[in-house]
Amino acid sequence: MPTSFFVLCCVSGFYLLISTVTFIYYWIDKRAAKAQRQRVPERRLLSLCLAGGWPGAILAHRLLRHKSVKRSYQRWFRLMIFLHIVGLGQLVTCIYQAMQT
Q1: How far apart are CA 96 and CA 7, in angstroms?
Q2: Residue 1 pLDDT class (50, 70, 90 cuts)
Q3: Cα 64 to Cα 54: distance, rounded to the nearest angstrom
Q4: Where are the domains of the chain?
Q5: Which of 5, 33, 44, 97: CA 20 to 30 A from 24?
Q6: Can you tell me the distance from the alpha carbon of 64 to that of 13, in angstroms, rounded to the nearest whole number?
Q7: Rounded to whole angstroms, how far apart are CA atoms 57 and 19?
Q8: Cα(99)–Cα(42) distance, rounded to whole angstroms?
Q9: Single pTM value for the model
């Protein structure tokens, strides 16, 4: 039981950290877009989402209204969320099974 709690705390902490970093990158990109400066590449933003920063990206979409309309980006972004939900489902299943034994 303590081990599974530790794993959940670590995973939650990681998601919080990478989401904060992702939100900051979206904010930097939004400012660069407004100032017509060099932008953060979409590949980097999507990589951060794939690394686990998708909650921060969702928050940035809502609060900053950034990257919330472009269809090609949204398609990839939704794929990243789907992959993480599947992965989290697998993690929860493994932890549940470990708790049962």
Answers
A1: 12
A2: low
A3: 15
A4: 2-100
A5: 5
A6: 24
A7: 7
A8: 40
A9: 0.82
